[in-house]
Amino acid sequence: MTSGPRPRGAGIRIALDTLRVRLHVIHERCASIDAKRWSEYRAALDAGLDELDSELTRVTEHPDPEDLDELLYPHLTRLELDAWRVRATHIAGTSEPDSVSLDLIAYAHRQLDSQHSGTGLPRGDLERIMDAIRDSIPHAGTGHGPR
After folding, report:
1. What distance in Å separates the CA atoms of residue 9 and residue 62, rounded to the nearest whole number?
2. What is the pLDDT of residues 87-138, one digit of tens each?
3. Which residues, including other chains, have CB under 8 Å from residue 42's CB and lie 6 or more apart?
4. Residue 130's closest CA among 86, 52, 72, 78?
5. In this predicted model, what pLDDT tens digit does every residue of 37-54 receive, in sequence order?
6. Most buried among 20, 53, 63, 127, using CB within 10 Å?
């Protein structure tokens, strides 16, 4: 059986589904965040999703569907990093934010910005940093943010 080129929308659906799952995991860890902080995060997430909508319009006009994932990766990763920043800043039962995770998050943001100019880490290295962030932030309760 031979496989032909991937359908044009498949890469976008996979990337968006991956983001949905990752945000769900983060939101499950945010039950203890106060309503004000959660509201601020949700407003920023809504703005980020609006930007993503514009980006999707732009990238779907790109002639090479194989590059769509690469074109969306920075924006999707920023949305995930923003969620992790909220989680790392507001860990239940502590008065201090998780500075190690926040440092990793800030580093990952800088690398994404540097990738735009061609000087950032390769994607594989950035993914290892993202994995470290995902593994470093503790769970806290269940639910999707404050009720």
Report:
1. 12
2. 888 765 555 677 888 899 999 999 998 987 888 888 899 999 999 998 887 6
3. 145
4. 78
5. 889 999 999 999 999 988
6. 127
Cα angle: 94, vertex 99, 105; to 5 degrees: 125
Please say whether the beta carbons of 132 and 122 come within 8 A: no
34: its two tokens: 């106060």
N- to C-terminal Cα distance for the chain? Answer: 50
Sequence spans of domains, the chain: 10-136
Question: What does the chain come to in residues?
Answer: 147
CA distance linking residue 28 with residue 20, whole number of Å: 12
Indicate the DSSP class of residue 6: P
Predicted structure pTM score: 0.79
Residues 130/16, Cβ–Cβ less than 8 Å:
no
Q: For residue 123, what are the contacts with CB-CB under 8 A and spacing of at least 6? A: 70, 73, 115
**Ramachandran region of residue 92, left (φ > 0), alpha (ψ -120 to 50) or beta?**
beta
